[in-house]
Amino acid sequence: MLQQKLSRGLKILTDRRYRQFYSQRRIRDVPSRERAADGLASRLPAFSGTIDMSDQIATLKDRGYLFLDNLISSDQLQSMRAFFSENKCADPYRPELGQFIAPGRAPQQTHVAFFPNETVIRAPHVVQIANDPRILSVVSGFLRAKPTISYMTAWWSMPNRDGKAEQAEQFHRDVDDIRFVKLFCYLTDVDETSGPHMFVPGSQNVNKLTTIRRYEDREIAEAFGADSLCTFTGKAGTAFLENTYGFHRGVPPTAKPRLLFQILYSLRNSIYGPDKPAGQIGADGIPSGIDPFINRVYLSAN
Question: In order of start, what are the domains of the chain with their CATH numbers?
């Protein structure tokens, strides 16, 4: 524990991303977070989109989530699923288990297994999806500034014998930046037995239960009402944007594994993204013509 604190302290001193990350996490009051985010957004470049997504932006701000139709084609879905089925991932909560191919060779005790940054950026279609004009229009309107693709990740959620919720399988608020939104893409069919995502609509705007910790289902039901919980099931290819400052969790699968791809759009760089760009715009299959500012965390311009 002491070693972890010292390591974090050193990163805060030497890495601006960590200073920004831990500084904004101290702002717990929802109105104060909004004011701070507006101030930061006003100093960032503006996004010039050609698609009017004002209704969708309003829905995302009010409800906290927005489903997106026809984002991923069947061919894209097939190639992405094949890629993540043949590349190694790891259990972040049990690093001693090493890397493995999931879901078939996942250790019995593993609940979730994530892919490293350098693997995700090589996955087919991820950059194209991240830069979809509709998504960028909605995200920029929500953020009130040109977004930063600060983290792209994918992970398997595995059925586990103990059936207990672990880490992000419990209700929580994400506090990745002072303002941010995430894209979720189901790469496998997700029903009630394969780990559906749960969300409390509107909770992102409610100024209560703002202490950063995991919450029991009972606490969320008492605060927002048992009928306020939404469960997102869907076929492979289902995609939605969500303000995960609102309460959410991933339900532990009971019968079938789930593969999910996710993108974090934020106002600033994230501590979870790569330390330096892992690719180049216009090279090695990366599309040309995409915005260098939006993609600067993962891709260099030349």
Answer: 2-44+51-300 (2.60.120.620)
Give the pairing of strands 180-186 and 258-266.
Answer: antiparallel
The pLDDT of residue 249 is above 60 = yes
* pLDDT digit string, tens, across residues 204-246: 999 999 999 999 999 999 999 988 999 999 999 999 999 999 9
pTM: 0.93
